[in-house]
Structures are given as C-alpha cells and as structure tokens.
Amino acid sequence: MHKASSLLLAASVLGGCASLGNPEQKVIAALEDQNYARAIEVIDDTPESHKQYALLQEQYAGILQASDEYRQHLVQEAEAYGRHQEWASAFELLESNRDKVVAPYAIDELTATLAILEGRQLNELLAERRAEQAEAMLESTQLSETLAKFRDSRAVAEKQRLDEERELLVADLKRLGEYFAEQQKWMQARDLLRYAHQLAPDQDPSPQLAKAQQVLNNADQRARAKRNQGLQAEAEQLMARYQRDGSMDSLLAARRFLNRHSNNNVLDKHRERLEQWSRRRFNEEMNTGEALYARGQYKEAYRIWKQLAPLYPNDEELNKKLERSRRVLSNLKSLQQS
C-alpha cells in the first residue's frame, strides 16, 4: 500500500512537466524507494534558478505527509514484531528504514522502548534460569570443599571452575535482584538476592534484600508497591499509544498523566523518557515548519507550529514564529480580498 502511494506521488511529479530535469528524476527515484528523506534533500538542494524548482516545491508538503504515513506504518509493524518477541526483526526493520523518513523521532523512541522491553523479557528469562542454577549449586556446596582436599591437578582445575562459576552467578543474581527491586517486583528481588547471599555468605548482602523483605512483610508497603506497578503499567500504555499513532493528543495525554503523579519517584524514568521524546519532536517539527515557511507555505508552517503550542506553551521562539506567520497569513488574506 505504501509502495503504491509512493509511486502515485512520483507519477504526479512526473505528470507535472513534460521535460524532467535531473533533480526531478532523483526525487522520483527516491520516492520509488520510499526514501522520503532523500526526496526532501533533493528538493532542498535544488536552487531557485532551476526550471523545476516551482514544481518541486509544490510536492514538498505531500512528501512530508507520505513520510509521516510511512513512519506510522513502520512503527506499527515493528510493534507487531515486538508483541511476538521477534526482537531482531523489529530492530532490523527500524534500523534499515530510519533514515528514509523525514522526522525519525518516533522510530528513535520506539527503538529505545523496544530495547527496554527486550531487556525486561530477557531479565525475566535469566532470573528463572539463574534461580535454577543457584538451587543446583546450593545442593552441591560441599563439593568445592571436598575438591580442595585433592592434590590431583584435575581436582584443582575443577575447584577453580566451580569457584569462578559461583562468583559469576552471585554477581548476576545481585544484578537481577537489584533490577527487580528497582521495578518494585519485590518477591523476585528477594528470592534472587537471597540466593546470592546464600552462595556468598561472607559478602555483605545487597541493601535491597532487607528492603524487599521489609516490603513483603508490611501490608501497607505491599499495597503501595502494587499501586506503583499499576501506575507504571498505565504510563507504559499511554506512551505506547503515542508511539503507535504519533498524535500530539497521545503525547499530551501521557504527559498529563505523569504530571498528575509528579511526586511519585517510581515514574521518574518515564518522565525522563517522555521529556526526551517531547523535546526531540518539538525541535524536529520546529525545523520542518521553518522549512515550509521559507518556501512560502505559510499556512502549513503555521499548522505545524500551532499543534506544538500545547507542548511548550511558554516557548519564546515558538510564540514568535506563530505571531510572524499569523501576520503573514492575515496580510495575504487582506491582499486577496482587495
């Protein structure tokens, strides 16, 4: 469907003029390859003196729209891969097409989010495996001591391997346990950190082990942890919705939710991620609006800047651009009426 749209757009460019110049051919080739960023780059590099300049400028807004639609298609397809835990396919799709869209902020954001989700699933799998390994190692605690009594080099090597395995396992149990504590999944955190302490009783236990035990022994704290997990899940859903549809409404809805819970530090990382997304989108669309304005497409530039206003309503540069474009549009309207 998106390939067909690109070809139709290319055909409209082709039909605009009987004799095509080199920039025009490059734009058509880029659109056939669904490389909207390249098409825009060609138009940007075409001087006003070129005979195809005016025709290319007419295609600018349409190419931007086609790029947005293609970006949304990529995001939806990558999300579908993610839902089926086909992480390699999701990342390959996004990485191979990122530079083809004009404003890749949504692709960058989804890539970062998928990396978090992939890491989360991997940690769940590793936690289950490390727990099984810990139980097996605890059942053979005497083996290392027994091997230490042997003179045979094979026993020495085997004991060394066992000690190294134990050291690596303890380190990973601590890492995973502290990860789950950060996620406020206290039961998993407690079990993993307890295994780590049992395997290395001479080491100081992680402070998160005592905290996990305290939370699980306290009904109020258990209820608070459950509420926090619910808030995290709702924040993730709102942010995922924005990634799916790319709409300003979805971005603002996620921001409003996080602002309502601004005193809850369990959502700090969500706020940080959303602020990065907001600032990236703001900067990219400010630049897109400026490019449209420079080409005399004042109404389209004003529309883009206007939809950014709720994101940063007090931004001085944005307000100046809105005022400038409003004056231009008003003047143009007066000239048309006269």
Output mean pLDDT. 88
From the N-terminal CA to the C-terminal CA, the straight-line distance is: 45 Å
Helix content: over 70%
Q: How large is the radius of gyration?
A: 29 Å
Order of helices and strands: HHHHHHHHHHHHHHH
Summing up helix and strand content along with how strands pair, one would put the structural category as mainly alpha
Strand content: under 5%
Q: How is the main sheet built?
A: none
The overall strand count is 0
Number of helices: 15
Low-confidence stretches: 14-20
Based on CA inertia axes, which overall geometry fits? elongated
Describe this structure in words.
By secondary structure, the chain is mainly α. Among the domains are: 1-102, no CATH class; 115-217. The protein is built from 15 helices and no strands. It has helices at residues 2-15, 22-32, 36-45, 53-83, 87-97, 105-139, 141-147, 153-182, 186-199, 207-217, 219-245, 248-260, 268-294, 298-308, 316-337. Residues 14-20 have low confidence and may be disordered.
Secondary structure layout:
Layout: H1 2-15, H2 22-32, H3 36-45, H4 53-83, H5 87-97, H6 105-139, H7 141-147, H8 153-182, H9 186-199, H10 207-217, H11 219-245, H12 248-260, H13 268-294, H14 298-308, H15 316-337
Helix pairs in contact: 1-2, 1-4, 2-3, 3-4, 4-5, 4-6, 5-6, 6-8, 6-9, 7-8, 8-9, 9-10, 10-11, 11-12, 12-13, 13-14, 14-15
Essential attributes:
338 residues, 81% helix, elongated
Short description:
It contains 15 helices and no strands.
